[in-house]
Amino acid sequence: MSEAGDEWPPDLRALEEQLAGRRVEAGGAAFKLRVLGAMNAARRAPGRQPYTWWQAAAAAAVVLWMNVSFIAATETELRVGDPVTATERRESVRQMRELLPELTEREAERQLLLLQARAHTLLAPLPRSGRAL
User: At CA 124, angle to CA 123 and CA 126, rounded to 5?
Assistant: First the structure.
């Protein structure tokens, strides 16, 4: 098996050797000041829109809303999974069939079982294999 560098064109191999041979200096106070100065200059550059407080507030609100909605979705207990007595089961099946007359009694019971099973599952996305997220 050959190295990845063997498959590269000569100009890329030369660039890699040039970059690998560079002297790396440790950052210090002067480097920090240079970076901060460059950041401040870029921030004040003409034509750049200023970062305003409302953009930060909107981003914070979105993050907060996402957290609250996820917690609400995963922690809300609808008591669907609680044990059901035979009387409650018959009443639930009757209500289902009243709302959806095309359901058979057997199908209504099946839907009730599915609702009870669903009560304790975690709402989380499933990653798809072979695809970038």
Answer: 135
Report d(CA 100, CA 112) in Å as an integer.
Answer: 13
**Which are the contacts of 78, defined by CB distance < 8 A and separation ≥ 6?**
119
Within 8 A by CB and 6+ apart from 115, the residues are 80
The answer to whether 132 and 93 are in contact (CB under 8 A) is no
| Length of the chain counted residue by residue | 133
What is the Cα–Cα distance from 118 to 121, expressed in whole angstroms? 6
Candidates 86, 91, 78; CA nearest to 117 is 78
What would the pLDDT profile of 38-78 be if each residue is shown by its tens digit?
Answer: 877 777 777 666 666 777 788 889 999 988 888 877 776 66
Sequence-ordered list of residues with C-beta below 8 angstroms from that of 112, at least 6 positions apart, any chain: 84, 89, 92, 93, 96
- Kindly report, residue by residue over 91-126, the tens digit of the pLDDT: 989 999 999 999 999 999 998 888 877 666 665 666
